[in-house]
Design a protein that fits this description.
The protein is an all-alpha fold. It has 14 helices and no strands. Helix 3 packs across helix 5, helix 6 crosses helix 12 and helix 9 runs antiparallel to helix 14.
Length: about 400
């Protein structure tokens, strides 16, 4: 039995495979989104004085996540996918324990960094596992289905966090993350087979990894699409880091914040489901190009609207814009990941690692700037969406320059 990627339509994906991949990846989203309602309590209990500094609970996790991805991919190409995911789960559990026991903000940030380092393992290697089994439109379809299930987590996570706060304190959230990490590890070990057989593994050598990384960066398609993804996701991270302040403090939504956040996350999930259906018919390039243009044009227009309202547009208008643009973003992620990985099947582990790391570095850097620029209005967020949308369009068209039209 070979382990070559499965051609389009040759195998219908097992529901369990899609759900397990999504749940394994979801540790990242859970570690972020369940924290959002608790940020004021964490800041108060751990002595944080600057309101914007609480955002570091989110951004430091992304920093650890970005740095570690470069390591997991090459190692998984050498020793297999499953041992690397086990290592990631282990580091995540250690980080969760540190956060649970933290008595000061610096200790909390150390734990959150380790949580990010740990979640990078499953997040990176899951992409390689999918690439081991699928390619082209089939991979885009699977990634969209995984994303659809994965999006259920941010839909529910803030409500879960808010619910935990009703019966306990913020430390109970870390107990929940610890328990879920253990359960997911056991399920993955029991049900997921190894997708990289011994004969396809590569020797772990610094020279080989550098060559594979250089090949990834030299690929116009891979570099262009991972840059475009990072720029689009940067605006999304800017939203994540400032969402609690915008909804709960600026618009006074209070305990309704999880409902607002969940509605927007559900829009992303709906878009991923739609993309899973449409990508097989229209192709990745056509869908992602139309979605990116729509996202960018809407963002530029709404930035002007936000300026007109002096940074405080009516809440209904803001939600309408965010739902529309998040739907377009939901059409991008699965396609952009598949397009970036398309030329890297022979170095899937390193390719997934480099793409994940570069995407994260770009998005964390731009998202942190947007988040820390928050000053009681949505202007930094809206202008950030517009600027990064324009830049991501440039990156996409640079990636496609000279491309011969194909069946992607």
């Amino acid at each position: 039995m070979t382990n070559a990627p499965i051609p389009v339509n040759e195998e219908r994906p097992r529901i369990e495979f899609v759900v397990l991949m999504a749940l394994t990846m979801s540790l990242v989203a859970l570690s972020i989104d369940t924290m959002l309602p608790a940020l004021p309590d964490i800041a108060r209990d751990l002595g944080v004085t600057d309101a914007n500094d609480r955002q570091m609970v989110i951004t430091i996790l992304f920093a650890g996540f970005g740095i570690a991805q470069v390591l997991y991919g090459p190692i998984s190409d050498s020793v297999g996918r499953k041992p690397v995911i086990y290592a990631g789960f282990g580091i995540f559990l250690i980080g969760s324990l540190i956060c649970l026991l933290a008595q000061d903000f610096h200790t909390m940030l150390v734990g959150r960094f380790l949580q990010g380092v740990g979640t990078a393992g499953p997040r990176t290697v899951i992409v390689a596992i999918v690439r081991d089994r699928y390619e082209g439109r089939a991979m885009a379809r699977i990634m969209s289905l995984v994303t659809s299930v994965f999006i259920l987590v941010p839909v529910l996570a803030p409500s879960i966090g808010q619910g935990i706060l009703l019966v306990g304190d913020w430390r109970a959230i870390f107990w929940m993350l610890l328990a879920l990490g253990i359960i997911t590890t056991i399920w993955f070990a029991w049900r997921q087979e190894e997708t990289l057989p011994v004969e396809r593994r590569r020797e772990l050598s610094f020279t080989r990894v550098l060559r594979a990384m250089a090949e990834t960066f030299r690929s116009r398609v891979a570099f262009g699409y991972m840059s475009a993804t990072g720029l689009v996701f940067g605006a999304f991270i800017g939203y994540l880091t400032s969402a609690q302040q915008i909804f709960q403090e600026m618009y006074g939504m209070g305990k309704l914040f999880p409902l607002c956040f969940g509605a927007l996350a559900a829009t992303l999930g709906l878009a991923s489901l739609v993309n899973a259906k449409l990508v097989m018919r229209f192709g990745m390039h056509r869908l992602s190009g139309s979605a990116l243009w729509s996202h960018t044009v809407m963002s530029v227009i709404f930035a002007g609207i936000a300026i007109y309202f002096e940074g405080q547009p009516p809440f209904a208008l803001l939600m309408t814009y965010l739902m529309l643009t998040f739907f377009m973003v939901g059409l991008l992620f699965g396609n952009f990941n598949a397009l970036a990985m398309a030329p890297l099947g022979h170095i899937a582990g390193v390719g997934a690692a480099v793409i994940g790391a570069v995407t994260t570095f770009i998005s964390v850097g731009t998202g942190a700037i947007i988040g820390h620029a928050y000053q009681g209005t949505v202007l930094p967020l809206c202008i950030g969406f517009a600027i990064l949308g324009v830049l991501s369009l440039g990156a996409k068209y640079w990636a496609d320059y000279g491309r011969v039209p194909a069946a992607e």
